[in-house]
Specification:
globular, six-stranded parallel β-sheet, alpha/beta, about 750 residues, single chain
């Protein structure tokens, strides 16, 4: 419940200059002292203010008012004005000088000084007069802008962010085009910008609204749906749905095209960065592919591989041998296949053959300079390293975004290795692929490994699928289930679903796959009991056990199930310090997941960690320490919006990971999300035990529903030869390369 109090600023306890967060002491009319916290500027100490907010209780400092809004109530008193002018806000003015100014000019001293600083001649020299006037203007301007922004309905936190960005031009820039916020301010989308536009009486039919809606529609299509473009009819339908107006958008589209914010190509509309990135990928693939490779004798390679086969007691299949030799002889090779088809065995054979042929000791430090293993996520790269016994890192880390790197923005540095193997490539979107390809030198051998039947990347595009479908690169498809995987009913079930050939016989429980028919509370009870049983058998809740659910809301959604598991299995639940964010509460030992890429912290969207400690910093603010694979990362209260509990995660977030025990509920409320690729991806996360709970008819239904194909042009662009393709030959002088290069792969995925 909101409360209103009035008072004078007495002192400032803390001010964060980066985000505007402030802690201050105020004195009310009845002489009470109170602490207020929130996002507001340094206020005049001689002015009475009304503060609106919610009372909170700090564990150490007691009752505080968390300020939502504030307003100026009345003019200055003599004592307050003297105190204000002699405050740290103004340099070179002490209490005696301030008193002289007020005695000379009275209570409207500030207005007189702002009008003509020569009124201070009897007291101050010209330099001090000019400085005081300048500081008064700056301080008054900030307060005026803050109050106006709050009147517009913005929170004090957003007001502080805007003022930090635009300074004293904030209101002018907003009035000229409130939609600039969605282009220029992180965390601002069309909806928030539209709210502000309405406050400035900008109609939905205004050209600024139409342009913003068009651009926003294309951004949503790419970031939410993965589509790189929309055709005219699709674009019109979605824009009108957003704005709910029946007008022509053609003029708005023309202006956006003229401004090079949107690119129109054969009736399809792209945002400019998306368009340029896709073309850059096509061009770079062809450049890398066409670089002359050294001639390597096939018979010699096969002889050396047979020796490796004997040493490792592995019988490589003809398809695996073909893939390894192809990768040795070509600049770029794609290897795709499902679980149990021998991708890891193949990569291990390739690593050893490459090392033997080029006389590299895989255990030496020099090997890291010759060979790079990488994957899109930390969990995938960690698994890669464990299986291959060779250093593997995330793609981001190889590009310069390392946990311990002091130069995290140095992603221009080329990759020096001569062999680069990229695993879990189905997860790579066009932003990350473009940055990766631009960092690889021509002449490097590139091996792209992935399962084309899994879900496409969370970010825009369908990179792996388009590369395979273009037929411009050598592609080896592994489709034979190997001997060691043939007894796995997890693999058999995944294969049946992937081939859309799920039979009743596939739904019989075995040692590694269990089917349980039930609904609602029954499923929840079974999951909790089975987790308890797995823990008793020695499985680890953080590393080994994972519940996968496709949606956040609902009685069997991610949010509720996370709370259920947390309250039952975290021994520190309600027994240690905690931090709250909205309806979530975090304790020591909780399993958490990062929801957005954060290059400053060195953590990526989808990284899973464990809360090691919750403490107080020197300002008595709660601080959370999370371990991501042994690297401690600190979170403040305001940063918890980027975390979530991870006992249960979405199937999309599970890509690139494997777990010994996987629980997969399938119920009717998930039906709109159930697709073959989603279920196939979930099932293939399980290594030892898979428990599917719910309605098995929905499993059969899902196996016949395909994810809608994304709107991409990479396949076509790759198929256009250099000799006749305007796009692949196009002069990029029109491309703002500074804009492209300032986009970090951390900003996407």
């Amino acid at each position: 419940m909101t409360e209103n109090i009035t008072g004078f600023i007495k002192s400032y306890v803390y001010k964060n200059e980066d985000n505007g967060y402030t802690i201050a002491k105020i004195e009310t009319k009845d002489g009470q002292n109170m602490t207020i916290v929130g996002y507001f500027p340094l206020l005049s100490e001689e002015i009475e203010y009304g503060f609106e907010g919610e009372f909170i209780t700090h564990p150490r400092y007691g009752k505080q008012l968390k300020v939502i809004n504030y307003k100026r109530l009345e003019n200055a008193t003599k004592t307050g004005l003297i105190r204000y002018l002699s405050s740290d806000t103004f340099s070179g003015i002490g209490p005696k000088t301030a008193e002289k100014i007020v005695d000379l000019l009275g209570l409207d001293a500030i207005d007189q000084i702002l009008k003509d600083d020569s009124v201070l001649k009897p007291i101050l020299n010209p330099i001090k007069r000019m400085r005081l006037k300048s500081e008064l203007i700056a301080h008054q301007t900030e307060q005026t802008i803050f109050i106006k922004l709050l009147d517009l309905g913005l929170t004090s936190k957003i007001a502080a962010k805007l003022f930090k960005t635009y300074g004293d031009q904030t209101l002018d820039k907003l009035e000229a085009d409130p939609y600039r916020l969605m282009y220029e301010i992180d965390g601002f989308g069309f909806i928030k910008s539209r709210d502000i536009a309405e406050k400035f009486n900008i109609e939905k039919t205004d050209i600024r609204s139409l342009k913003a809606a068009a651009l926003y529609t294309l951004q949503v299509a790419s970031m939410n749906d993965g589509d790189l473009y929309l055709n005219y009819d699709e674009l019109m339908f979605k824009i009108r749905k957003i704005l709910d107006v029946d007008v022509s958008f053609d003029h708005a589209l023309k202006e956006l095209i003229d401004e090079r914010r949107i690119i129109e190509e054969n009736g399809n509309y792209f945002t400019k960065p998306i368009y340029d990135y896709e073309i850059d990928i096509a061009k770079r693939i062809l450049e890398l592919k066409d670089y002359p490779s050294e001639s390597i004798d096939t018979d010699l390679l096969k002889l050396m591989l047979s020796q490796i086969s004997i040493q490792k007691s592995i019988d490589y299949t003809e398809k695996q041998i073909d893939a390894i030799i192809t990768a040795m002889q070509n600049p770029i090779t794609i290897i795709t296949g499902g679980p149990g088809t021998g991708k890891t065995t193949l990569i291990d054979g390739l690593l050893n053959l490459y090392a033997n042929y080029y006389k590299i000791n895989l255990k030496s430090i020099e090997a890291k300079a010759e060979i790079a293993l990488m994957a899109p996520t930390g969990r995938a790269s960690k698994r890669m390293q464990e299986l291959l016994n060779f250093n593997a890192r995330t793609i981001h880390s190889h590009l310069g975004f390392d946990f311990e790197s002091s130069n995290k923005d140095n992603y221009y540095e080329p990759l020096v290795q001569n062999l680069i193997i990229i695993d879990e490539a189905s997860m790579i979107d066009i932003f990350l692929m473009r940055r990766l390809l631009m960092s690889i030198e021509v002449g490097t051998k590139i091996v792209i490994v992935g399962d084309e039947d899994q879900l496409p990347s969370v970010g825009p595009g369908y990179v792996l699928g388009d590369l395979i479908a273009s037929n411009t690169l050598p592609v080896i498809r592994l489709n034979e289930i190997h001997r060691q995987a043939k007894d796995s009913h997890i693999v058999k079930l995944a294969s049946s679903i992937n081939n859309q050939n799920l039979q009743n016989d596939d739904l019989i429980s075995y040692n590694d796959v269990t089917f349980y028919s039930g609904d609602g509370a029954d499923i929840k009870r079974v999951i909790l009991n089975q987790i308890a049983g797995a823990l008793k058998k020695g499985y680890d809740l953080i590393e080994d056990i994972q519940v996968l659910i496709p949606q956040y809301k609902g009685e069997l959604g991610i949010d509720i199930m996370n709370k259920e598991i947390q309250s039952r299995f975290n021994p520190f639940y309600k027994k240690s310090h905690s931090m709250k964010y909205l309806d979530k509460e975090y304790f020591q030992n909780d399993k958490v997941i990062q929801l957005q890429n954060d290059k400053d912290k060195g953590v990526m969207n989808g990284d899973i960690g464990i809360i090691k400690n919750i403490t107080k910093n020197d300002k008595n603010q709660s601080i959370m320490e999370v371990s991501f694979d042994g690297v401690l990362v600190t979170y403040e209260q305001s940063e918890l919006e980027n975390l979530n509990l991870a006992y249960v995660i979405s199937i999309h977030k599970s890509q690139g990971s494997e777990y010994k025990v996987v629980f997969l509920p399938i119920i009717k409320s998930y039906m709109h999300m159930l697709k073959k690729e989603l279920i196939y991806t979930a099932i293939t996360r399980a290594k030892q035990h898979l428990l599917i709970l719910g309605d098995m008819r929905l499993l059969q239904y899902a196996s016949n529903q395909l994810v809608e194909k994304r709107h991409t042009k990479l396949k076509q662009r790759l198929n256009e030869t250099k000799s006749n393709s305007n796009l692949l030959n196009k002069d990029n002088s029109e491309v703002d390369n500074d804009d492209l290069d300032n986009i970090s792969p951390w900003d996407f995925m």
